[in-house]
Amino acid sequence: PRLLPAAAQRRICAARRRTGWGPRLLTLQVGHPHSTISKVLRRHGLSRPPRSIREPEHRYEWPCPGDLLHMDVARYARFRRPGHAVTGDRSQRSRRWMDPGTRVGYDFAHAIVDDHSRLAYVELLDDERAASVTGFVERALAFFAEHGITAKRLMTDNAWAYANNRSLRELLDHRHIRHLRTRPYRPRTNGKVERFHQTMAREWTYGLRYRSHRHRAQALPHWLEYYNERRPHSSLGGLPPISRVHNLCGQVS
């Protein structure tokens, strides 16, 4: 079979590096079959490495928006200048951010993802304490309500700020929301938000160069709007999450 022209291969590789997407999502952007894209990525050494964590054995999806929300938090180091993960420079100068005098702490990315639509809400906070978690959940519920979504269940892991948070329990009880917790050592139960954090890290956290953590934080609302309203989602047939929010329950396959 004939090879794709070099220009088309460069376009595929550039899209792969820019987005981190796999062949099935890239085909929506570059227009070639995913089998062709897979061959190009393998040829150029850009195939996805083997997953360190297996996919859930039994995939599930709740039938309506709001039936189940998934919540989790990820931690990202703050920085005053780009590090070697972005610049590729591992010289001593590029690693001065590690000195105690230049450390600036962490951003905690709290996220909630709707199981059915994959609509996501994210905030960067200074910590993951109980009061911060409860405030975040309250604002997230308001966000989903603005989109016509009434939460019925919220799933978290067994972190202290979730499992022993009295104010969170009172909030959920007041809203008649059932709090579900994952089984110990089974993070895949909350896989949709885990996968969302992976996507966010690949496309927002490390996908672009930022001058500092403040510039990274400023880019988050723009990326989140893109994710919710324009980014194709492979589990949604190439449609963005908002497409499922705009449909009444039971009218989306």
**What structural class should be given to the helix and strand makeup?**
alpha/beta
CATH topology of the largest domain: Nucleotidyltransferase, domain 5
Strand order of the largest sheet: 3-2-1-4-5
The assembly state of the depicted protein chains is single chain
Task: Describe the 3D structure.
The chain has 253 residues and is of the alpha/beta class. It has two domains: 6-43, no CATH class; 69-245, Nucleotidyltransferase, domain 5 (2-Layer Sandwich), CATH 3.30.420. 40% of the residues lie in helices and 13% in strands. It is built from ten helices and five strands. It has helices at residues 6-19, 23-30, 34-43, 84-87, 130-146, 160-163, 166-174, 191-205, 213-229, 242-245, and strands at residues 69-77, 106-114, 120-125, 153-156, 178-181. It has a five-stranded mixed β-sheet with strand order 3-2-1-4-5, with helices on both faces. Strand 2 and strand 3 form a beta hairpin. Helix 2 packs across helix 3 (34-43) and helix 5 runs parallel beside helix 7 (166-174). The chain is globular and about 65 Å long. The chain starts with 5 loop residues before the first helix and ends in an 8-residue tail after the last helix. Mean pLDDT is 83; it is low at 52-57.
